[in-house]
Amino acid sequence: MAKKQATIQFLMFGIAIGESMTLLSNSQQTALLSDPTHFDQPLHWGSHTSLSLTTIASLSRGYQLTDVMNHFQNWYRKRQFAPEKTRQSVDAITKKAMDNYTKNRDTLASGILEETADSEDILVRMLPVALYLHHEYGVSFINDESAMLTLHRIAGLTHNAEGALVSVGMLSLIVSQILEKQPIRDAVENGLAFGFEYYSRHKVFESELAAFEELNLPDFANIPVANIVLDGRSASTLEAVIWSLLNSQNYTEAMMNAFMHGHANSIVPTVVSALAAIIYQEDLIIQASEQLTSRKLIVSVTNQAERLGRFN
C-alpha cells in the first residue's frame, strides 16, 4: 500500500504527523506509533506544515521568488493552507520578514540578517525545496550556482542569516543523498562533505562551518544524547535531527529518538518525522496520516505537485 505514495506525499505526511505528535502526551505518542490503526485522536498540525504546503503549491508551477513570498503572505494574512483545527503561530523572525515585505514589496530585502535569524524555524519549510532542487537539477545541484541561489533566496525570504543558510544547505544536500537511496550514514557523510567543500569556497559562509564540525565527526552517532544542546540555532537542531536518524532502523525508532530531546523542542520531531518518512516509507506513516486534520488538503497539494512533475 505505502509504496504507491509519491515521495513528496510521504514528506508532507511526515511533516504533519511529526508536528502533530509534539502536542501529544508520551502515552499518546506511544499508542500512535504502536498501532496507528486503533489510534482515535485527531492529529492537529500547525504552521510549519502550512508553510511547507505553501512552498509546494508555489514551486509546483516552477520557481518564481515573488510567487513563493506571495504564497507566504496569503498564509500569513488570509490563513491560506491553514484550515480550522490546525495550530497556527508565527515565529518572530517570520513575522518581521512578512511585515517587511508588506512595507517594501522587495523579496531581496524582506529577510532578517541579524544573528537571531539563525533559527531552527527555517528548517521545516525548506524540506520541499530540497526535493524540488533534486528533481530539477539532480543530486549534483550543489555544482549549479543557480540552484544554490534558489535555495538561499527561498530561505532568505525570512531567515537570511549566514548560519541559517548554511544549515539549510547542509540539510538539503543530505536530503538529496537520501533521495538517491543512499544509506543514512552515507547520506550524512556525503552531504556534509559536499557542503563543507561548497561553503568553504565562499568567504561569506566560511566562518559558519565551525558550528558543524562535531556533526562532521566519524563517530558523531555515538555521542551521548545529553551532549546535544538545543539552543534554538539551526545547526544545533540539525545535530539532534541527524543523531536521531543515525541511531534508528525504522520510523518508530527515529521518532522515539527525536523525543529524547524533550517536549520543549517541536522542530526536531517534525524534521525527523519528515526524513524518516521518506527513508523508510512504512505503512505506519500512511495509517497514522488518516488521523490528520484536513488530510484532504495535504493530499490535494501533493497530488498536484506530483501531477505537474516538479518534485522527486
TrEMBL record:
Alphabetically ordered keywords of this record: Hydrolase
> Which Gene3D superfamilies does the entry link to?
ADP-ribosylation/Crystallin J1 (1.10.4080.10)
What would be an example GO MF term here? hydrolase activity
Name the UniProt record assigns to this protein: ADP-ribosylglycohydrolase
The organism's taxonomy opens as: Bacteria, Bacillati, Bacillota, Bacilli, Lactobacillales
